[in-house]
Amino acid sequence: MATGCGGAGGDGTGSGSGTHPSTIDVPIAARDRVEPLAAPVAPRLPVTVPSADGRPVTVTSTDRIVPLSGSLNEIVFTLGLGTKVVARDITATFEQAGKLPVVTRAHDVSAESVLSLRPTVVLAEGTTGPAEAIAQIRDAGIPLVVVKPAKALTDVGARIDAVAAALGVPDSGTALRKRTQGRIDAVRKGIPAREEKPRVAFLYVRGSAAVYLLGGAESGASSLLEAAGAIDAGKESGLVKDFTPITSEALAKAAPDAILVMSKGLASVGGLDGLVKIPGVAETPAGADRRVVTVDDGVLLNYGPRTDQVLKSLVDQLYGAEK
Fold it and tell me: Which pTM value belongs to this model?
């Protein structure tokens, strides 16, 4: 649910100084573009690939591609096939995709909108729905490949390879996977060694919808936080699922030193001042220090070609002058 979700507008950012900033402007937002491969290759088609929902799918053309998530859109553009993309999901917010028609309502796919664009291949997530819309697209004879969702850094390479294989560009997939992993490795080498790791709680908040959740082991943020040299406070406190409603008791048990929140989510609750008014937040070490880490909604949990930027943003905000 949290991946790439939008929220109410507003700035929601402040300024900080020293090692423990409050809320920091997200560097990714200032350059919200993807970086295509320098030497993409032409698709070799037809290809038959396994879809993550258990069926083989044959792709004969990539002339009109419809990726049904922001993350999949990002991978397709980065593979060098952006000129073939004819639509986007509402969570595809990067600049190159900005003028494409949106084929989702909230987070539900509109089969009619997709089919009106005459796609030759559709890429979907395992969580893409409703099921009736997916069935309608397939019943129309459109090749639809479901890609297994990613929740950890170790999933990035397989996800890139799956998209590249479906589009007939496995060599580009290999090149992008190696580039992405190399950049992630470079960020990790720069993380300062600390005897005591910072405890970070991932909060998913949407003030306009009165949604206030604390992330657990399956939220998707654990792998990033651990790669950044931190402890996922929700996971460490015993939350084994994805999210649980925020309570004073749950936050007290998590006892985070810092809070990670999506930038639009922070804006939706009125910025840092509004965040600390959520019951229990002000009583945590993070709330008392007003120590909040923000990352743009469109990239935080994508686990794709820009994950190195997400990781670097986390590291820079958590450690600041220590680096």
Answer: 0.85
Please tell me what DSSP assigns to residue 28. Answer: G
Cβ count within 10 A of residue 43:
22
* Least confident span in 31-35, 108-112, 116-120, 246-250: 31-35
Rounded CA gap, 125 and 146, in Å? 5
Euclidean distance between CA atoms 279 and 70, whole angstroms: 32
Cα separation, 291 vs 16, in Å, equals 9
CA–CA gap between residue 127 and residue 293 (Å, rounded): 27
Cβ atoms of 199 and 214 closer than 8 Å = no
* CA–CA separation, 279 and 275 (whole Å): 9
Give the position of tokens 């943003």.
Answer: 313
Q: Report pLDDT for 28.
A: 44
β-pairing verdict for 211-215 and 292-295: unpaired
Main-chain phi, psi angles of 203, to 5 degrees = -110, 130
Sheet with 144-147, side-by-side order of all strands: 65-67, 121-125, 144-147
Chain centre to alpha carbon of residue 160: 14
Separation between Cα atoms, residue 320 and residue 167, nearest integer Å = 41
Q: What is the pLDDT of residues 128-147, one digit of tens each?
A: 889 999 999 999 999 999 99
pLDDT value, residue 321? 56
Return the amino acid letter for 296. Answer: D
Distances (CA, A) of 140 to 111, 133, 233, 248, 282: 10, 11, 46, 50, 53
CA distance linking residue 40 with residue 285, whole number of Å? 48
Q: Are 162 and 47 in contact (CB under 8 A)?
A: no
